[in-house]
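Late entry, evening session. Most of the bench is empty. Finally got around to the prediction I had been postponing all week. Sequence below, unchanged from the version circulated by S.P.
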Amino acid sequence: MPPFARLILVALTLIAAVGCDAGKDEAEASAASVKDKWQDFTRELSRYTESEREQLSASVKRETQQLDRQIGQLENRIETAGAGMADKQRQALRQIRKQREALSRQYQQLREDTGEAWQESKAGFTKAYNVLQQSLQDAEQALNRDNPDTSDDQG
């Protein structure tokens, strides 16, 4: 199977796992599963070569669109949370938005660079993506833990 096809498969599995909301034990198992799938995604990302730039670009675009949906869902949940929780989570959301902007800059650099610089940009994008994904996961877990009434029933 070509690397980009494996990446798409891993990304779709990740999206499905993140989109489901379950009980506490299932949520912990799901978080571990998401982390494993995320590591698979980043490994696949590292295997792309410069000649596969277009396939990588399409995969990254789909994955960042999913991140944007997650951020939107998190924002909606925070808006329905209590005042004290909302302040704490809004601060986390602001940090997530900054990380999303950094990811966009890394993606633009990845699209523009060639040769060795492209490899460095790919590593920078992967790092920025990992940081953002972890922040999203942490914020969702904190929101679930601190305010279970805002649980997202989609999935």
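Two things to note before I forget:
Confidence is low (pLDDT under 50) at residues 3-23.
The chain has one domain: 3-149.
Will write this up properly tomorrow.
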